[in-house]
Write a structure and sequence with these properties.
Layout lengths: L6 E7 L11 E9 L5 E7 L9 E10 L4 E8 L31 E5 L4
């Protein structure tokens, strides 16, 4: 998302409707990129656990100026060893698809148009 006007970011969330949907995720990163090309890390979870799908209130509000970009990045491990067992059987690695029944990378953000 690229800001069209000045906004204040208060929190970010990784939503998981179904734990199976993010079971293969290994990390989760939220950053902002400014028009000059510089980056700020807002949330970095290098060892993701799907039980952590929740709101993350930032330690301090972050000002987004016009042209700033909100960037979300996730990675997955879909090797056989990382697949959740199905009826007690370890499934083989498989391709993942973008759907809540498969795997997703999403980031919701709570913005306000006022600066505290």
């Amino acid at each position: 998302m690229r800001a069209a006007l000045a906004l204040t970011l208060l929190a970010v969330v990784h939503p998981a409707d179904d734990p199976k949907a993010v079971a293969a995720a290994t990390d989760y990163l939220v950053q902002s990129q400014h028009p000059d090309g510089s980056w700020d890390c807002l949330l970095d979870i290098p060892a993701w656990d799907y039980h952590w799908s929740s709101w993350y209130q930032l330690a301090a509000p972050v000002k987004f100026n016009p042209g700033d970009l909100l960037y979300v990045e996730c990675h997955w491990d879909n090797t056989a060893a990382h697949q959740p067992p199905v009826k007690g059987v370890q499934p083989a690695p498989r391709d993942l698809h973008w759907a809540t029944a498969e795997e997703m990378c999403a980031g919701l953000a709570l913005f306000t148009d006022t600066w505290p």
